């Protein structure tokens, strides 16, 4: 089962943690940029990196600069916050799904 990018439990976590605002900004920036014409895939598809999509290194640099400017922090610091929250959310979602699987197995 695919996990939606936005789900109520994840959003509640982001409300409670200090770097939640940075995570949300980065998520929104990626979404905005990848939907722009500048990053459109040459064949016109909506496929992402795994199938010949965006230049992720260039995209990361753009988002880092935008986020750094928005929050008045170095690129390294905002990215460290983003990665920490991203890891935490991934671990939360993994544990949540494992609980659901274990419950179904009983």
Protein model, in words:
The longest helix has 31 residues, at 75-105. Helix 2 (20-34) packs across helix 3 and helix 3 (56-71) packs across helix 4 (75-105). Helix content is 67%, strand content 0%. It is mostly helical. The protein has four helices and no strands.
Helix content: 55-70%
Report the end-to-end length measured between terminal Cα atoms.
20 Å
- Secondary-structure element order, N to C: HHHH
Largest sheet descriptor:
none
Structural class, by secondary structure, is mainly alpha
The beta-strand count equals 0
Question: How many H/I helices?
Answer: 4
Per DSSP, what share of the residues sits in E-state strands of 2 or more residues? under 5%
Calculate the mean pLDDT score and round it: 81
Low-confidence stretches: 41-51
Radius of gyration: 16 Å
What coarse outline follows from CA principal-axis ratios? elongated
């Amino acid at each position: 089962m695919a996990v939606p990018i936005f789900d109520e439990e994840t959003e509640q976590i982001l409300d409670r943690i200090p770097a939640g605002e940075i995570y949300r900004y980065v998520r929104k920036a990626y979404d905005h940029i990848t939907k722009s014409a500048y990053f459109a895939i040459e064949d016109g598809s909506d496929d992402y990196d795994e199938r010949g999509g965006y230049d992720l290194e260039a995209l990361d640099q753009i988002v880092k600069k935008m986020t750094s400017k928005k929050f008045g922090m170095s690129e390294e610091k905002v990215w460290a916050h983003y990665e920490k929250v991203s890891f935490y959310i991934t671990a939360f979602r993994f544990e949540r799904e494992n609980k659901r699987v274990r419950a179904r197995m009983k």
